[in-house]
Amino acid sequence: MMGFFKHRGEAGGQGAALGHLETQVMDLVWRHGDSNVHDVVRGLERPLAYTTVMTTLDRLYKKGLLERRKEERAFVYTPRISRAEWERKRAGELVAGFLASPATPGELLVSCFVEAVGERNEALLDELERTIRKKRKELERRAKA
To answer: Which residues pair with 35 in a beta bridge?
Structure first.
C-alpha cells in the first residue's frame, strides 16, 4: 500500500498501516504535540538511536502525517491530522477495499460487522442504526435534487 498522502502536502492517496516504530512515534506526537527528535527519543519505551528516530520522523513527514518547522538547528514536528482522522481514513479504506473485492460479497462484510459490533457494544449498534437512517435520508434528498 502507498502512504497516507501521495506527496507531502497533497491530500489523497491510499492509507497504509504504519510500522511498529512509526505507530509508536505517531502516538507520542499525537499525545504531546510539538516534538523534536530528542523529545521522541526520550518518550519512547525502548532506547533507540537518534538517527533511527530522525529517519522515522522524516518518513512520517514525507507520508504527510507530520508537519515540520525549523527551530534553531532542529526540526519540530506536529501532527498534520488527528488520530481520529487517521483511524477514520484507514477504516474507510479497509471497508472500501473489502467491498471492491470481487471474491467477497458486500453482504458478508455487513453481516460480520453487525455481528461483531452487536457482540461487543450494543450502544454502538444503536449508533450504527441511527447513522444508517441518516445516510438514507441524505441519499433520498440527493436523489430528489
So the answer is: 77
